[in-house]
Prior knowledge:
The complex is a heterodimer.
Chain A: E1 4-5, H1 7-12, E2 19-22, H2 32-41, E3 46-49, H3 61-65, E4 69-74, H4 81-89, E5 93-96, H5 99-111, E6 116-118, E7 132-135, E8 138-143, E9 148-159, E10 164-165, H6 174-180, E11 181-192, E12 211-213
Parallel strand pairs in A: 1-12, 2-3, 2-9, 3-4, 4-5, 9-11, 11-12
Antiparallel strand pairs in A: 6-8, 7-8, 9-10
Chain B: H1 3-12, E1 20-23, H2 27-30, E2 42-45, E3 49-53, E4 74-81, H3 84-92, E5 98-101, E6 105-107, E7 112-113, H4 128-134, E8 138-141, E9 145-146, E10 149-150, E11 152-153, E12 168-170, E13 174-179, E14 182-188, H5 194-199, E15 205-206
Parallel strand pairs in B: 1-2, 1-5, 5-8, 6-11, 8-12, 14-15
Antiparallel strand pairs in B: 2-3, 3-4, 6-7, 9-10, 12-13, 13-14
Protein name (chain B): Acetate CoA/acetoacetate CoA-transferase beta subunit
Pfam families (chain B): CoA_trans
Keywords (chain B): Transferase
Amino acid sequence: MHLAISMEEAVELIPDGATIMLSGFMGVGVPDGIVHALAHAGKRDLTLISNDTARDATGPGPLFAAHCVRKLICSHMGLNTIVQAQYASGELDVELVPQGTLVERIRAAGVGLGGILTPTGVGTRVAEGKEIVTVDGKDYLLETPLSADVALIAARSCDYVGNLAYMLTATNFNPIMALAGRTVICEPEEIVPVGMIPPDLVKTPGVLVDHVIKKTA
Amino acid sequence: MHPKELIARRVAQEIAPRSLVNLGIGIPTLVSDYLDESLGVFFQAENGAVGMGHRPPEGMTDRHLTDAGGRFVSFVPGASTIDSAFSFGLIRGGHLDLTVLGALQVDEKGHLANWMIPGQYTPGMGGAMDLVTGAKKVIVAMQHTAKGEAKIVPECTLPLTSQRRVDLIVTELAVLKPEDDGLHLIERAPNVPLEVILEMTEASLIHDPDVPEMRVGC
């Protein structure tokens, strides 16, 4: 399979200081293998874009425990005590983004839009420093696109051309982030022959996927 | 009756048949326990579930099927899954009939604060700002006070979740409704005197001399 790389090769594709998107929601739909490998490799100064920080040892948790992350862009970080401590001490720079805005900013980058207009956050702290655009008498915040050097994707199934299928609520940010990463690395639960994923069930066409991490026995 | 059960039972009465509902973490989650399943309500979660059911029996959970708190759930017949952009399209786009959320503070204008306590604890807003901005109806379900401190205040001192006015506030002591002229006390919990509610509330309340009791039959 021409897309296949080893976990070690995947880790080498992500330099210190990179901006990475990590899919998942409270640890569900997260490519856990690459998270652990990056933490083990001791990456530094990463900017992490992720919906949430799950708990200390789940989802992106190991990246914080290993002090890999300098800047975090997320919607929720309330249940990870390591993140809370690093935020309080100033080790971690945090930008909190409402969840619906976060996913649309990522989608905007992925689909070539210059930003989005959302009513969410108008009249709150989130609006500080942002342009208000009035459309048909209603106020919206102008929110800018959010892209990344690398998007790390977890899929249920991946075929030999990189088509991805997801499962239940493990879908979450995966298909959106797969559009927005300049390099897209997928860690599937299984790799199957072409044709095994019915076309209608492919949620990320293989043309978007650059590398697939192949499990070593 | 346990205070949280009382709140959940009262909120359950607000849910219309065949509506799409999002329940927040904590007390709001309990609401589905007191809902008649024949109503055909679909529960939505931010992580992309439409049609969540109860936690499955031991051994029948699936790690790909969770609620927005990461807990294992089941699906009811007719359920579906969607990605996060679609999920917030439902929420922000006015397709969600009701959201029930917890709060740190609510004020006389019906403004809600529930995502940070500056200098103390900053969990983040998660989906709350989109939910309060986009849902057709917003109900706050919370304990009336926190460690003796009033949570229903003249004006929120904590950062707001939205400038939108919530529709109803349900606590273990009272049901309150924010209107243009202020915050109305419309029901009191069984056997709770009016004076107790007024004492536990910092906000000014508009009320009739006789405030009716909630009807929460078991």
